[in-house]
Amino acid sequence: MNIIVLVKQVPDTETRIKVQPGTTDIVREGISYLLNPYDEFAVEEALKIKEAKGGEVVVITMGEARTEEAVRTALAMGADKARRLDGAEFLGADSYATAAALAKAIQGESYDLILCGKQAVDDDSVQVGILVAAMLGIPCVNMVTKLEVADGSVKATREIEGGTETIEAPTPCVITAQKGLNEPRYPSLPGIMKAKKKELKAVSLGDLGLAADQVGAAGSKTEISELTMPAERAAGKVFEGEPADIVPKVVRMLRDEAKVI
Amino acid sequence: MANVWVIAEVKEGKLKKVALEMLSKGKELASQVGGALEGVLVGSGVEGLASEMAKYGASKVYVADDAALAEYNGEAYANIIGKLVEEQKPGVILIGASINGKDLAPRLSAKLGAGLASDVVELGADGGKLTVKRPIYAGKAFASIKFKTDIQIATVRPNVNPVAAPNDGASAEVVKISADAGAVKAKIVDKQLSAGGKIELTEANIIVSGGRGMKGPENYKMLEDLADVIGAAVGASRAAVDAGWRAHHDQVGQTGKTVSPTLYIAFGISGAIQHLAGMSSSKFIVAVNKDAEAPIFKVADYGIVADLFTVAPIMTDEFKKLLAE
Ligand SMILES: Cc1cc2nc3c(=O)[nH]c(=O)nc-3n(C[C@H](O)[C@H](O)[C@H](O)COP(=O)(O)OP(=O)(O)OC[C@H]3O[C@@H](n4cnc5c(N)ncnc54)[C@H](O)[C@@H]3O)c2cc1C
Ligand SMILES: Nc1ncnc2c1ncn2[C@@H]1O[C@H](COP(=O)(O)O)[C@@H](O)[C@H]1O
Questions:
Q1: Are domains B4-176 and B201-324 of this chain identical in fold?
Q2: CA quadruple B224, B230, B236, B237: dihedral positive or negative?
Q3: How far is the CA of B254 from the centre of ligand 1 (A)?
Q4: Which residues of chain B does A225 touch, with a Cβ-Cβ cutoff of 8 Å?
Q5: Per-residue pLDDT tens for B160-171?
Q6: CATH assignment of B201-324, among 3.30.200.20, 3.40.50.2300, 3.30.300.20, 3.40.50.1220
Q7: What is the mean pLDDT of residues A220-234?
Q8: Which chain A residues are within 8 Å of B75, Cβ to Cβ?
Q9: B62, B68, B66, B56: which is closest to B22 by C-alpha?
């Protein structure tokens, strides 16, 4: 069973985000980057399936050179080889243009299953997996917390409001990983050493056979016109003392002053 | 003419509150972009809800009503709505940013080649086109988004747009549309619903949340009692989830749910940056922590420096008294 995992590099969740004045980007200096946490679940699930059924795990990312670090993490966890869509044309993509490029890259591979994160924790779009599936004309099960793989189909349990549902879909299909799917392994030291020698191929726009206006900022259906910071929260009131005295007061203030109850 | 559409999600025979919020906002948008406000209902036994949508401003409601559509299926719903959009060509499509809404919207975006902005918190218009604002990095920053396509789709975060007063006299033209879902490959084979009508965190008006300071799973009963009294949903920090005290879907934060309730009450949560990212857009924040230096107090409107095990029961009793007045 050959599996493709889509991975993205994102700023460490510890990062204090600042907007780069006069631009639509954040301040990049000093940021450390990680493999998107949801993509770790996707990689882990792919490796578990491979361990049970054999086959190959190929990770694909689209991004500038630094994003190879995230790909190396996936390789160090145990993925077999990697592709990076490389070139200035790919940059500035919204979810649609990202998915268009990734879908085209996937078409060049042999695959039975595609795994990705449900969400990249930088743009928080929750779109790319579903878009890729639709562009490839295959089904997608979104926000999956349990996956069983059979011959020619999968059973995926996904979160819904107030519970879960199990969906059966034929393969190939796209599964987006939600927290709870598994516990991602840490790359081992030998894993990290081996990863350095694994194939990581740069794929250009020409390799994909796409035009420059189909990808990146030019191929996007939306554009960011401005980035802003959230309004600062004003300093609040602090209550110290005997709970029996202060809690009744706070509760009344929630109604009479804050008017939130 | 660029009409504004609201795709209404139905839960237990009722329109979700976010549908009313979107209609209320959509009415304003429709006048700004020079179109009409229209609704779409897909489901089973949903036709009667069209009159409800009319009260909030929809002049026309398209209805696909069929027993086979009782449960949301992304492919089926996208096939039906996608076909309708291709025929009617609305300018703006608003969908609630619920679990199903976030599943449906990208399917429509792909089908229609339409731009999509997720989880928007502000909607406006500029030169006849939709403009939106949405949180990125879980709310550590906001992006203003413009669309390059004629059809513009947004999923709208619940609880950020007020519901307008209904006009009980208003009515809408009801247009029945084909309920033919076309070819559907992924099928629901099982459903497991947890007992009790739990309030979904991202849609809750009030959230009571507990962290590592709760000390163990058994103590969440205290928070559930409080939540029952004030009609709140119960959330948790990642520390509590990772300890196995609470379910994964209860986690609030950058790798959990981003929430913006009217009131968020945090018990025994220190306020790590990933947690704050997920909840600091709440309208009002109360924090209970015995450590006066805890970072959560930097975002709290009311901070109670005390032992949560003493505070929580008193708070429950006081709310009971207050609400009985
Ligand atoms: C990649 C990544 C993603 C993450 N995503 C998230 C996320 O989405 N959501 C999230 O929440 N975290 C997330 N975290 C974890 C985050 O960094 C913190 O570790 C976590 O939020 C801490 O949870 P806590 O506040 O419950 O626990 P702690 O930091 O241990 O705080 C417990 C608090 O309880 C107080 N306390 C203890 N006993 C009492 C008592 N009796 N009465 C009153 N107060 C008491 C203490 O003073 C303390 O402030 C993430 C971390 C990483 C690395
Ligand atoms: N540039 C990218 N390269 C590879 N995979 C991506 C990229 N962007 C998003 N993805 C995948 O799509 C998922 C959802 O991302 P998003 O829709 O941006 O929230 C991520 O978890 C990744 O698995």
A1: yes
A2: negative
A3: 12
A4: 131, 144-146
A5: 999 999 999 999
A6: 3.40.50.1220
A7: 94
A8: 139
A9: B56
CB contact (8 A) between residue B307 and residue A243: yes
Domain range summary for chain B, segments of one domain joined by +: 4-176, 201-324
The alpha carbons of chain A give a radius of gyration, in whole angstroms, of: 22
Q: Distance between CA atoms of B302 and B305, rounded to whole angstroms?
A: 10
CB within 8 Å of chain A, chain B residues 83-142: 98-100, 102-103, 105-107, 109-111, 113-119, 131, 133, 135-142
In the structure, what pLDDT confidence band is assigned to residue B83 with cuts at 50, 70 and 90?
Answer: very high
Going from the N-terminus, what domains does chain A have, and what CATH number goes with each? 2-219 (3.40.50.620)
Q: How far is A199 from chain B (nearest CA, A)?
A: 30
CATH placement of domain B4-176:
3.40.50.620
Helix (H) / strand (E) element for B116: namely strand B115-120
A 79-138 near B (Cβ less than 8 A): 94-96, 99, 121-127, 130-131, 134-135, 138
Q: How does pLDDT run across A107-146, given as a tens digit for each residue?
A: 999 999 999 999 999 999 999 999 999 999 999 999 999 9
Ligand 2 centre to CA of B15 (Å) is 32
Instruction: Read off the pLDDT of residues A146-169 as tens digits, 9 standing for 90 and up.
Output: 999 999 999 999 989 888 999 999
The β-bridge relationship of strands B206-210 and B263-267 is: parallel
Q: What pLDDT, on a 0 to 100 scale, did the predictor assign at position B195? A: 63
Beta strands at B152-156 and A33-35: parallel, antiparallel or unpaired: unpaired
* Token reading at A101: 């490029």
The three-class DSSP label of residue B275 is helix
Cβ proximity of B97 and B155 under 8 Å: yes
Q: What is the ipTM of this complex?
A: 0.96
pLDDT at B196 exceeding the cut of 60: no
